[in-house]
Structures are given as C-alpha cells and as structure tokens.
Amino acid sequence: MASEERTPYDRALEPEIRDVSIELSEPPPSTAIEVQNLHFHYGRRKVLEDISIDIYQHHITAVIGSSGCGKSTFLKALNRIGEIEGNVNVAGSVRFFGQDIYDRRVNVNRLRRHIGMVFQRPNPFPISIYDNVAYGVRRLGRSRVHLDEIVESALRRAVLWDEVKEDLKKSALGLSGGQQQRLCIARALAIEPEVLLMDEPCSALDPISTMKIEELLRQLRSRYTIVIVTHNMQQASRVSDYTAFFNTDESRIGRLVEFGPTVQIFTCAANSSTRDYVEGRFG
Amino acid sequence: MELSDRELPDLDLQQPLSLPRRLFEYGTTAIALGLTVVALLPLFAIFWQIVSQGLQHLSLEVLVALPAPVGMEDQPNGFANAILGTMMMVGVGASVSVPFGVMTGIFLSEFAGGTAIANGIRFAVKILSSVPSIVVGVFAYATIVLATKQFSALAGGFALGVIMLPIVTLTTEEALKLVPDTYRLASAGLGEGRFSTTFRAVIPNALPAIVTGVLLAVSRAAGETAPLIFTALSSQNWPQGLLSPTPSLSVLIFNYADSPYREQNALAWTAAFVLLAIVLLVNTISRQVTRKHLK
C-alpha cells in the first residue's frame, strides 16, 4: 500500500474515534448465540479447536482471518448447514438463546429458519424474483395477499424493491450479481430469522454493489443479529461492532485468536498476530 | 517521442509459420475432418436408405389398414395394428419404468449419495443395463407368459420396462448430480428439509435432463425386437387388450424383412421409416413441452 494512503488502522488512531474506553465501559449486550469450547471435525479431520465466543444480539460480528483458518466452517456450525456437505463431528456447545442447537431433539429445519444464511456466491433459484423471496414462506400456508405483503416487505428491507417492483415475475437470473445477492438477503429475511449468517457475501461483487450491501447491513442491525465472514479487513472495520480473528498454523486447525469490540481489535489488539493481520503484514 | 524515433523490437507478427508446421497443421485438420465424415457415414447411409426405401410405399393406407393376406392385391394393406401395439407396449413399459426409475435415481443421488447401499444399488442397475435384451425377453416369458399361459402386450410391455428401467435410473441420477449444490444449500438454509429441497429446488432444475433420459429409454424400447418375440409374439389383427398377442413395428419389420414376398419387404422399409418418425416426433414434442414448462 502506498505510504501516503491512510489505512483503516491510521484512521482508527485518530483521537476522535479512538476512544476505546467508552465503548468498553458500556454494559455488555445480551447474547444471541453462545459458543463454548467448540471443537469441529469434518469426518476425521479436525477443522476448529476450542472456540468460545458470544454473538451479541442486534450487533454485527465480523469473523476475519486468512484462507483456510475455519471462518466459513465456524459460520456453518452455527446453523448446522455443514452437515449437508459431509460427515460432521462436534464437541462443546452452541447455545442459541440458551438452547443447545446440537441437542439430538433439535429439528435442524426449524433451527435454520431462525438462523438464516447468505452464501459467498449469489445463489438465487432459476425462478421468478417473487418466487425466490416466497420460497421459504410458502410452506407456512399464507394467503396470496399476505404473501404479497411479505415479499414486498422483505424486498424493501433488502433495499431491492424499487429496482425490481416492475419485474417481480421475471427470472431472478436476469439481475446483476449485486442485485442477486440482495435478493438472497431478501429471501432469507422473508422468513423472519433472528440471526443472519453471511459467508463473504461481497467477495463475488464489484465495489459499488459491495457498498450497497454494507449500507444494507447497517440498516439491518437494529432488527437482526448478523455474523459476517469476510476476507476484507476494511469491510470488517466499516460494518462490524465486534470482530473475531481466527488463525491457523501448519496443523490446518483453526483457532480463535482474539475476540472483542471491532475498534479494539483494529487499534489495540492484545495479540501480536492479530495486530500483524489487521495491519496487513500477512494474510 | 514519435513512434518512428524509438528503437522498436523486431516483431515478426506477420510472418507465416514455417512450411513443415503449416503442412502438419493442415494435415491433422484434414485427417480429423476425414475421420469425422467416415464416422458419420453409417448414420447418413442408414437414414438415406430408410427414407428413400420407406417413402416409396408410404401412404395413408399403410397407417390405417390391417395387413392384407399375402397375394390379395386389391385389399388395403398396412400395419396400423403394429403402430398401435408398439405404442401400447412402450406405454406399459414406460408406466412401469419411469416412476420406479426416476425414484431410484432420486434415491441414489439425493438420499443415499456416497453410501455403500447407493454403490451397491448403482452396481446392480448397471448390470441390469448390460443384460442382453433377448435374456430380458426370456425372463419375461418365464415370469409372465408362462404364468398367464398366453403371449400378451402386458408381457411385452414388462420386458420393455425392464430394459428401460436402468436407462431411466442412471440418467436421472446423473441429471440430479449435475444440479449445483448451491441450490441445495440455499434451500436448506431457508429451513427446507431434504424431501422438499429435492422436489422444489433440485428436480425442477434437472427436469429437462430427466426427460431426455426417459426419451432415450422410450426410443430404445420402441426399437427392441428380441424381448417382444417371446412375449407379445405378433398378430395380423388389432390389439385385443393387454392380455393377448400383440403386433409391434419392430417384430413386423423382423418378420417382413426376410419374407419371400416383395410387398412385405417393401412394407418393412416403410415400417422402419414410420418407427423412426414416431421416435423423432415424440422426442421433439416432449422437448418443446419441457422447455415451455420451464419458462
């Protein structure tokens, strides 16, 4: 990076937004998901070791770290969607408002309705825009009028309504990448989840679309709890309230290095590898 | 600085490649093209022969009349009964093999993917697909013809169904495997279970390929002769329901082709043309229908 440019680190060092002590002295917000000593295996291979973290309600938590450190796996452990891709073994506990989601009696489909997900690449179904948003809602047996309202409201919350309101019957595949990703967000919001998991939602998008999604995230924060995995440290520092830094070594087992308020992680991280990472010295 | 002032690298952009390399390039292109033509030759030869010989005697009469007794020149002569019989038996075969085959394909791909059970079933289905069709005919003879004590469209349709089953199963499984996992994840992420994910997010995307597989099976079954000789036999009359000997185009072609009577030889060509036309027609129509359905 050119020396003249200000990094987020530099900007964070400026005194007016530098006051970490105020942030820290606020009472801790209530916890939506409490992860305790989570060990995660895909088949025999250990992917995550001893992760303990609190995901706070109505806040945005960013998960950062270099490739292959288990960020995505961690995210997929929170709504048990990793189980679709392979044989999964879990030790430790993940409590969603107090209930252990790995309890044998938990219905994973109900769990995933409470903890929605947006994937790395926009993945709308090759059906109409309307049907995409209604996909998860249809099962609930809503009337047509009610369904129309739900679809409109979800698209409005995803800040896509004005762009697509004339074309609801058209195929979702005709939208641009950024619109498709906002459609996927609308689709997830339509079933009213408490938590939204986002796995690098902007990595396949151009900067303008990325900016729109980040704006959207800030709007959604008041109603939803958001966990976002990102490769992009500027993005983490721009949108998130809390940041978790994951890292790994030759063993390829991901560990949580540090977790705390985003300002603290980006300005005065306790761990030296966190400081190196957020300053762009590796990863 | 002007372009002409600068010292430019010596570019050979417009120089042709050396002669041996050019010759090699033309030579290999010519060989590839020549071999392609040779490979397509039998296809066009068959097509040409069937069309040129078959069209000579094609008329409305052959499509609506029963076969005339040999030597009766003044009676209408045709094979409408065989067309109907083929459709009946392929219909019976499809109604047995499509539901079972599609469901087995869905099970293999979506519900048992990668397990030992799936591998075992897939292996069995592949073996079934390589069983010679005459063996399938003998099997249908032993199980249905002997049990009901008569040759019948049911036995013929059953034999065709056994031949279609592995084709439908394997192409359905392949079609489903080609559907990107992102759709499955998206659907599961919205709280849909495996069953509803399969039927709402996966199958609609695989439908054209599944239909293609079914059509492949139908085309194959429509042309099968060996399994029908033992099971449906043939007849000179209209099909009398599912439980009596039934004529079919393929057996009619088989019987007429080496018949000593010239008019029967000629009708064999016409029947071959009609069989080809029916298969092509079914193919085209169902492809159009699925394409429209998707839009």
Short overview:
The complex is a heterodimer of chains A (283) and B (295). Chain A has 283 residues and is of the alpha/beta class.
Which chain pair shows the most residues in contact?
A-B, 25 and 19 residues
Name of the CATH class of chain B: Mainly Alpha
The CATH superfamily of the domain at 8-118 and 194-278 in chain A is known as: P-loop containing nucleotide triphosphate hydrolases
Strand order of the largest sheet of chain A: 6-7-8-3-9-10
Basic shape of chain B: flat
Any idea how many domains of chain B? 1
Helical content band of chain B: over 70%
**Extended strand count of chain B:** 0
- Give the integer mean of the pLDDT values of chain B: 91
Number of helices of chain B: 11
CATH class of the domain at 8-118 and 194-278 in chain A: Alpha Beta
Number of strands of chain A: 10
Model description:
The complex is a heterodimer of chains A (283) and B (295). By secondary structure, chain A is an alpha/beta fold. Chain A has a domain at 8-118 and 194-278: P-loop containing nucleotide triphosphate hydrolases (Rossmann fold, 3-Layer(aba) Sandwich), CATH 3.40.50.300. Chain A has 13 helices and 10 strands. Chain A is globular, with a radius of gyration of 19 Å. In chain A, a hairpin with a 2-residue loop joins strand 4 (88-96) and strand 5. Chain B is mainly alpha-helical. Chain B has one domain: MetI-like (MetI-like fold). Chain B has 11 helices and no strands. In chain B, helix 1 packs across helix 11, helix 3 packs parallel to helix 6 (153-177) and helix 3 (80-111) runs antiparallel to helix 8 (194-223). The longest helix of chain B is centred in the N-terminal third of the chain and has 38 residues, at 19-56. The termini of chain B are far apart. At the A-B interface, helix 5 and helix 9 of A face helix 7 and helix 8 of B.
